[in-house]
Amino acid sequence: MSSSTGTGRLRSAPGPRHTRILGVGAYRPVRVVTNDEIAPRIGSSDEWIVSRSGIRTRHWAGPDETLADMSAIAGGKALAEAGVAPDGIGCVLLATSTHFRQLPAGATEIADRIGIRGAAALDVSAACAGFTHALALASDMVRAGTVDHVLVIGAERMSDLLDHDDRSTAFLFGDGAGAVVVGPSDTPGIGPVVWGADGSRADVITQSADWRRLRHDPGHRFPALTMQGPTVFRWASGTMAEVAAETLERSGLTAGDLTALIPHQANLRITDALVRTLKLPDTVAVARDVVDTGNTSAASIPLAMERLLGDGRVTSGGLALLIGFGAGLSYAAQVVTLP
Amino acid sequence: MHTTDEILAAVAEAVHEIAGPDVHEVRPDKSFADDLDVDSLAMVEITLALEERLGVAIPDSEAKNLVTVGDAVEWIGAAQTGAAA
After folding, report:
1. Which residues of A are tagged catalytic?
2. Which of A25, A110, A167, A235 is the most buried (most CB within 10 A)?
3. Domain A194-338 adopts which CATH fold?
């Protein structure tokens, strides 16, 4: 019997339609770690750390604040704010570099914890640029009609990945989780993504060895994060300014149209350099959550967004330019309407 | 091609914008780190600004050797003519 005798016709998902962020939620670990606590171990000082990075404190998660714990709380808050029930979520995307299992994906446990059943759940690996990559994927899924709502989570326990004796990175990173719900909208609320990766520079931010090293050489030290700071700084403050300009242009906007700039919170010096290069008007609120949250990698943008809204520095409906950048070297940027 | 005075003015402006010192303080004999409070990250930013404004490429490996304002002016002047080492 021929396989072409059926009468059914393939139907595509409905779409396209506009998308937007409907709600944001955050979780910051209880324990606040000061520079004075970190400085002695790396032969540094509070003054040096502040001048180098702008960071004064960061949160480090405890044993009762696992990646799934933090993500479930942030995700639950985002759902509540969006007014979307768990069974309304069609896909959960977790952006992280600190889910320490090759399988299963971290998103599966989080979906289960939140009570999201029958939805796809997978992880997105794009390091500090993970959240904006996942947000772009989520927007396209909703836009194409694949699902109605996506829960996008950026969560990290960077304190697990750090070399706490590395004086160039030990003070930079923190832990936390942020989440947003992406859904359909009558008007455009998530603009086109500008993204890319340059694997020829994979060694700029990486791990000191891959996991198999521990299998073959159990005495080998933990494969912690390593980073060539000045090289990252040059790339982030130079190339990311070009990416920001391209993102605005592709979105049909100028810097004056923005309510907020929410770059990945890598280092206050990078944020300040971006602001200078972009010649942002004073009316644009600039996220500087890094000062007391540190660099939380994939969690930094939703955490900073929640903070700006919570502090009342911006209001719902304003336009925010998001720029994620990090190991890869990878980047992804888009303009969104704030929830 | 930029004259030595133009290059010095561009360096002074970049140092002022990025690290704070008044443009008149940025003289050829001044050390970026010791006299002008320019740390290594600020030096990266100044380098990027000068690349943009003067149309020269300053590799990281060279930027490290630019100790004084005069070093930078001289290196950029030579780079314009293709004579930089």
Report:
1. 128, 264, 295
2. A110
3. Peroxisomal Thiolase; Chain A, domain 1 (3.40.47)
CB contact under 8 A, A238 and B40: no
Mapping DSSP to helix (H, G, I), strand (E, B) and coil, where does residue A109 land? helix
8 Å CB contact of B45 and A237: yes
- The pTM is what? 0.92
Q: What is the pLDDT of residues A154-167, one digit of tens each?
A: 999 999 999 999 99
What token pair was written down for A118? 């029958």
CATH architecture of the domain formed by A18-185: 3-Layer(aba) Sandwich (3.40)
Helix H or strand E encompassing B51:
helix B40-54
* Residue-range definition of the domain harbouring residue B15: 4-83
Compute the distance between CA of residue A112 and CA of residue A110 in angstroms, rounded to an integer: 5
Tally of structural domains, chain B: 1
ipTM of the complex: 0.76
* Interface contact A230-B40, CB threshold 8 A: yes
CATH number for the domain that contains residue B48: 1.10.1200.10
CA A215, CA B42: separation in Å to the nearest integer? 42
Determine which of B17, B37, B44, B64 to mutate to test the interface with A (most A C-beta atoms within 10 Å): B44
Angle subtended at Cα A290 by Cα A286 and Cα A295, rounded to the nearest 5 degrees: 130
B18 touches chain A (CB under 8 A): yes
Question: Mean pLDDT, to the nearest integer, of A332-338?
Answer: 98
Is residue B58 within 8 Å of residue B47, measured between CB atoms? yes
Residue B56, both tokens = 């020269």
**Any chain B CB within 8 A of the CB of A273?**
yes
> Touching check for A48 and chain B: CB below 8 Å?
no
* Contact call for residues A190 and A247 (beta carbons, < 8 A): no
